[in-house]
Amino acid sequence: MNVTEKSAEGLSREFHVVIPQTHLSTRLDAKLEEVKGQVHLKGFRPGKAPLSFLKKMYGKGMMSELIQEEMAAAQEKAFGDAKIRPAMPPHPHFEDGIIEKVIEGDADLEYDIHVEVLPDFEPIAIDGLSFQKKVTEVPDDEVDEELKKIAEQNTQYAARDEGAAAENGDQLEIDFVGKIDGEPFDGGAGEYVPIVLGSQSFIPGFEEQLLGVTAGEEKTITVTFPEEYGAPHLAGKEATFDITVHAVKAPKEATVDDQLAQSLGMEDLDQLKARVREQVEGRFETQSRLHLKRDILDLLDEQHEFDLPPGMVEAEFNQIWSQVENVERDEEDKEKSEDDLKADYRKIAERRVRLGLVLAEIGKEANVTVPDQDLQRQIQMQAMQAGVPVQQVIEFLQQNPAALAQIRAPLFEDKVIDHIIEKAEISETTVSREELMKDPGEDEPAPAAD
Known about the structure:
Elements: E1 2-9, E2 12-19, H1 21-36, H2 51-82, E3 91-94, H3 98-104, E4 109-116, E5 130-135, H4 140-153, E6 157-159, E7 171-180, E8 183-196, E9 218-224, E10 238-251, H5 258-263, H6 269-303, H7 310-325, H8 331-334, H9 338-365, H10 372-386, H11 390-399, H12 401-423, E11 425-430, H13 433-436
Parallel strand pairs: 5-11
Antiparallel strand pairs: 1-2, 2-4, 3-4, 6-10, 7-8, 7-10, 9-10
Helix pairs in contact: 1-2, 4-6, 7-9, 9-12, 10-11
């Protein structure tokens, strides 16, 4: 194997690789000898089939595997000898038809490798960095507002007077039997089912036709299932529902008291208030950390200047731009030309790549790692959000290392931010709730190459 460096310009490297055909043939013969005793061919005793016959039967497939192995070894040698770290997967370049000739045993395996490398730079020392952390006290009215929302979400209902007509917001208890073309369908029946009029928890048109019903009334309504309904056998079809109304209940006024707290498993209202205050404090702390993280990222961006791998920037820009094209532009973006917008978002891509590389280098120097339990927790969360079994996600990630890296990257970066916060001098500055809750406009760093 002969590997030579052809060019080195900026962060671009190109290598020329030559793997002699004789070396490949020798390896192929050795591999065939290994499997000779395991192959059972009609007309030959085990292990007695001629090598030439085995080569004819299995040579091309085995040679393809050997080519992949030799290319991986050549790549490792090229990068190791040159002491470089690839920024992205390298690109091999072959002459037309060369692979077929190599497989046939008629040519050396000769090709070029083009790769972009990670820049060499020294990250700033993080010991002694100083930042201000925005904080604010949880106001009592914030807790009261949260308690009011909880009370409204746990509305209690009381039966209306006999003969009273159902109004929007009332809760009914009903039996129903759904039919299509006069025949009941699976899943279309229920008994003593609670339904709040106006909640839009049933298909369109269902709740609206129950306004004005009274307890004890029987009624048949007609609705049409949406075209995008989850059950294909019902989507877009007209159905009737035979309904019996058992009760019409009006909502009670939402009250924040011990009874509400006890209905939620608390001892009394004081315990519920304490729990709510903790939750609000947690939200405030999360927002406070977002502001602190943004300040840290801004400083790291300002303090580092080095060449960026063009391929990484382009990949990050393409990802950002694909998102931009799929959402409605805000008023500021609408006033800009597409070229101006692309220039703005390319700067964001450059910032993300730069920060990803800086955080990766700081994390490497500090031996920052992502615990397995953190990674597993994130995988489980993504599986729940996608509505698929965890094992299915794990199997997908085992087959797609890049997808696993995308999950690991933000966890790693948060660990590096934690490390910086531990080493830095952090002072607190009190701000208003409104200022704390402003969007810090954080843009996540792009994942750096391992």
